[in-house]
Amino acid sequence: MLQSFDHPRLGEIILSQTRRSRRVSLSVHPSGRIRLSFPPYISLKRALAFLESKVDWVEATLQKYKNRPSTPKPNSEQIEALRLKAKSYLPARLEELSQITGLKYNKVTIRAARTKWGSCTGQNNISLSLYLMTLPKHLIDYVLLHELCHTVHHNHSPKFHALLDKILGGKEKILAKELRLYSIP
Question: Of the candidates 66, 96, 113, which is a domain's last residue?
């Protein structure tokens, strides 16, 4: 079931009652879209009560997204320029960081991913968004090192974060917080 609900303070809320949900969850997209997901065995009344308990958090999150540096959506010509720049820089820099850290990956691909800066498969194949090229160089390195650490720990466990923090000289939390100030255009 997918429907919308007009909240007096938050505006339109997308309600998603789906069997894939295991619990009530709330998400706020940088575009301002708010989604309340919940499993069929939880009543709409209970899901809305959860939403009410999180109204302040939603408003703070929306405000945080408004304060992010805005990056205009690139046109097709700009995307191709980013793609060329990404293909020439990212694989070479990933290989360089792999050599420095001793963390080995299988292969790397560059995509126009708009939801994640990067990902790593169980086979240690790394996929990087060409939009990484819109970030400062130290944040590009942060993402590349993040993905390289996934070649050892394929999750976000404490061991994963300890490894990444060690490689980053104790700056993982600072860099993660800084990266959250940016969004993929």
Answer: 66
